[in-house]
Write a structure and sequence with these properties.
By secondary structure, the protein is mainly α. The chain has 14 helices and four strands. A two-stranded antiparallel sheet has the order 1-4. Strands 2-3 form a two-stranded antiparallel ribbon. The chain is globular and about 65 Å long.
């Protein structure tokens, strides 16, 4: 009798991983709200709204890093265009947020303010239904999945791989960025979407809503980690890893790599879309710059720094790099890009398995000496 999906999910992580997840959720869902709401602003333990928003934003990035690790660390597919799927999810939910402004907007019209400014008389057909939360949630999942499926099917069917695949993914996201920059596409041009007011009737900027979004992001990241751990340990994950290591041999024994690579590619895109939808209401803006090739390259850097093929490593890498970015861009803004490039070079040459690989080496040496 085969074990149920729930039991297989529970067995996907070991005891230490479950303990770490429990601590993470406790900190996110219990400790952080208490330190924000129950502690006074004059206390040293008070957590400001800025800090909560910053950590929530980085958790969205960590979710994207896990999605990237699934295709690169376990599928051997290096994408330099994952920022596209992240932005598509953000835009899909941003459409809902813009419709919630409604007649409270600056121009008193029932369409987004930027459309009134551009003298649009009615919303485009692809905005239909965007004022419903359920439809927006469906778009968050369906749009990245559809784009990933169409692109991935023709790319993997043509057996494009390696650096060539990386280049065309970068070209894809760059083309999408140029498209979204145009005002006539109906997505706000270079300004994008901003000035959000409400989500499900609640103020987006209220501290309580910020805490709820923070908690939802933490839960989404934890569930993604559990799902990814189960996926890579399943038969699908083992075949995917075999395709990464020796695709021709896998084809020889009767497996078709196309559908395995396409499946993990679409799953990864959907996870990025979810991250983008959680990111937008917390940050308060989404514009075409999220699709820039530099952002997609930075996603790969998070995974490389943390350690690809480890799942937990990309989360660590996303936090380390983005916390360093927050500090560098304030203290030494002109040196941030140089530091990021140096970090990637050092990790590639000296730490090919990232910070997680370094930790494993240290613990292995300590065990050997003991």
């Amino acid at each position: 009798m085969r074990p149920s999906l729930t039991l297989r999910l529970l067995a996907a992580l070991d005891k230490k991983s479950w303990l770490a997840l429990g601590v993470f959720l406790a900190l996110s869902l219990i400790v952080v709200p208490l330190l924000h709401l129950a502690v006074g602003e004059d206390s040293a333990f008070y957590l400001s709204t800025y800090f909560i928003t910053l950590i929530g934003k980085i958790m969205c990035y960590a979710l994207v890093a896990v999605a990237m690790d699934l295709i690169w660390g376990y599928g051997g597919i290096l994408s330099l265009g994952h920022g596209l799927f992240f932005a598509l999810g953000g835009y899909a939910f941003g459409m809902y947020l813009m419709r919630q402004i409604g007649r409270d907007g600056s121009y008193g019209a029932d369409i987004p303010d930027f459309m009134v400014f551009l003298d649009w008389k009615e919303i485009p057909w692809f905005w239909s239904g965007s004022d419903h939360f359920a439809w927006a949630g469906l778009l968050v999942l369906a749009v990245p999945a559809l784009v990933a499926f169409v692109f991935g099917y023709f790319a993997f069917r043509s057996r494009i791989k390696g650096v060539y695949f990386s280049i065309i993914t970068q070209a894809l996201t760059y083309a999408a960025m140029l498209l979204f920059f145009r005002n006539e596409t109906g997505f706000g041009g270079n300004n994008g979407f901003t000035d959000f007011k409400r989500v499900l009737g609640y103020s987006v900027t209220s501290p309580e809503t910020r805490l709820v979004l923070f908690g939802l992001t933490a839960i989404a990241l934890a569930l993604t980690l559990v799902f990814a751990a189960w996926l890579v340990k399943s038969k699908f994950g083992r075949v995917l890893t075999a395709i990464r290591d020796a695709e021709s041999r896998v084809m020889f024994i009767g497996y078709n790599p196309l559908w395995y690579k396409l499946s993990i590619w679409v799953i990864s895109a959907v996870l990025c879309g979810i991250a983008g939808a959680l990111y937008v209401p917390q940050v308060g803006i989404i514009n075409p710059s999220e699709m820039s090739p530099a952002n997609s390259i930075e996603i790969a850097i998070w995974v490389a720094v943390g350690g690809r093929g480890t799942l937990i490593g990309p989360i660590i890498g996303a936090f380390v790099v983005n916390l360093a970015k927050s500090w560098f861009t304030v203290s030494f803004p002109e040196y941030w890009l140089f530091f990021l490039g140096l970090l990637f070079i050092v990790v590639t040459l000296m730490l090919p398995q990232g910070l997680v690989g370094l930790w494993k080496k240290i613990t292995a040496r300590q065990g050997a000496s003991a």
